[in-house]
């Protein structure tokens, strides 16, 4: 087991599947664990999927790093995305388009119509709007994507309480354990005589292959709007265009998008949409994307990239490693992993996890953990510590909701119950 892990973690294979986090924290790191993989990137072809998710503040840094790999290590990079960011500028011939006349292919699609409403509304107003539409269109599948867990729960509970006939309701967010999320997604994808109403957070954008008639999306950046539009009439199987409706939701303090996204990117999105018609079609999206990323590139600060590049030039690799963060939690909440003992299988896995502490040899302990890691992670969620006050009688640094208290702290439909702010055992 440990030998296999050593080979896997060292990327000792001709074909490697990994994440952005693993990849970029490997090429921008001074840590031994990461540097073990570094040499395998030479003489390679690196395919980066959905590259638009890279934060704009790192565009210059990654441009320089990627260019260095290409020039000195014979590494080829292929960007795969329908919404190409301007990390490399095609107008300056910094990148080669592999598909000639790509605009032609975008013009051929006519699956969705986008309606943009930039006038802010509160959740009560939105409830009236969405309730009216789901009642008026009883045969249409709906997807509602919200920016915050709190707003998504609010809207889901409201719609679920309508108890509409011939309707199945689904809620998706990261406060549902991965095992149950996957089960829900598989159910959504299955054909059914009942129409579906799905309420989700942004996780629906990350490769979740579902297909609905109508999407409502709380205001977000252009690339996020594009991603969720891809869940509407995805397979061109609907008799008419799908509808994607973008609304701006707010609470008593500010627009909900401000809790999640960079104000800079939100402002650029708003600028682009103000210049566009209130109704858009799929053929319009490529020019919309190009305009958005051009505004981002032309007006964004490169200070953070320049600072990190200066660390490279001055050999300050420790500072480089500590300051580079591909995922930035805008909310800034410290989080804790919580094991949810949802069923009998989880009870057995938790018992095995607890027994790990009795194994004194660290290598044997790690080897044993690896045998349960996959199943263990299926019951793991990550929640803000402010919503989960923990005692830690045993030093495992992980929260724990025991089977006997599941009904109190975990809802089978909506996951972790935030409102209770429990003081739970952290075992």
From TrEMBL:
Any one GO MF annotation of this record: ATP binding
SUPFAM superfamilies to which the protein is assigned, alphabetical: P-loop containing nucleoside triphosphate hydrolases
Record-given protein name: Helicase C-terminal domain-containing protein
Keywords of the record: Antiviral defense, ATP-binding, Helicase, Hydrolase, Nucleotide-binding
Keyword Nucleotide-binding: yes
Record flagged with keyword ATP-binding: yes
Helicase C-terminal domain location: 122-286
InterPro entries in the record: Cas3-like_dom (IPR054712), Helicase_C-like (IPR001650), P-loop_NTPase (IPR027417)
Gene Ontology annotations of biological process type: defense response to virus
Signal peptide as annotated in the record: none
């Amino acid at each position: 087991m440990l030998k296999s892990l050593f080979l896997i973690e060292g990327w000792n294979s001709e074909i490697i599947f990994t994440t952005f986090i693993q990849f970029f924290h490997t090429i921008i790191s001074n840590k031994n664990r990461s540097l073990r993989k570094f040499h395998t990137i030479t003489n390679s072809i690196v395919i980066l999927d959905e590259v638009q998710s890279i934060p704009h503040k790192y565009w210059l840094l990654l441009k320089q790093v990627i260019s260095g790999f290409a020039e000195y290590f014979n590494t080829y990079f292929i960007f795969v995305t329908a919404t190409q960011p301007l990390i490399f500028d095609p107008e300056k011939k910094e990148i080669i388009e592999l598909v000639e006349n790509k605009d032609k292919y975008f013009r051929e699609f006519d699956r969705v119509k986008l309606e943009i409403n930039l006038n802010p509304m509160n959740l009560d107003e939105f409830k009236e709007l969405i309730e009216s539409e789901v009642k008026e269109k009883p045969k249409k599948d709906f997807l509602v994507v919200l920016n915050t867990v709190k707003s998504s729960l609010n809207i889901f509970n409201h719609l679920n309480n309508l108890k509409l006939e011939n309707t199945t309701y689904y809620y998706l967010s990261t406060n549902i354990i991965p095992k149950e999320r996957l089960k829900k997604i598989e159910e959504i994808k299955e054909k059914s005589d009942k129409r579906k109403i799905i309420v989700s957070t942004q996780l629906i954008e990350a490769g979740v292959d579902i297909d609905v008639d109508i999407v409502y999306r709380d205001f977000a950046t252009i690339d996020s709007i594009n991603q969720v539009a891809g869940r509407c009439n995805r397979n061109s199987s609907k008799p008419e265009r799908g509808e994607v409706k973008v609304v701006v939701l707010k609470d008593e303090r500010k627009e909900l998008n401000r809790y999640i996204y960079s104000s800079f990117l939100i402002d650029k999105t708003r600028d682009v949409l103000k210049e566009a018609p209130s109704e858009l079609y799929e053929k319009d999206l490529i020019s919309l994307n190009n305009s958005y990323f051009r505004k981002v590139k032309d007006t964004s600060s490169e200070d953070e990239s320049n600072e990190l590049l200066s660390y490279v030039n001055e050999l300050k690799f420790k500072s480089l490693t500590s300051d580079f963060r591909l995922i930035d939690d805008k909310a800034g909440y410290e989080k804790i992993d919580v094991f949810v003992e949802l069923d009998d299988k989880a009870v057995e896995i938790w018992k095995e996890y607890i027994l790990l502490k009795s194994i004194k040899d660290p290598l044997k302990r790690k080897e044993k953990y690896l045998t349960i890691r996959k199943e263990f992670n299926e019951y793991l969620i990550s929640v803000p510590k402010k919503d989960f006050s923990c005692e830690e009688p045993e030093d495992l640094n992980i929260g724990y909701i025991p089977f006997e208290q599941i009904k109190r702290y975990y809802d089978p439909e909506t996951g972790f119950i935030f409102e209770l702010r429990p003081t739970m055992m952290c075992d």
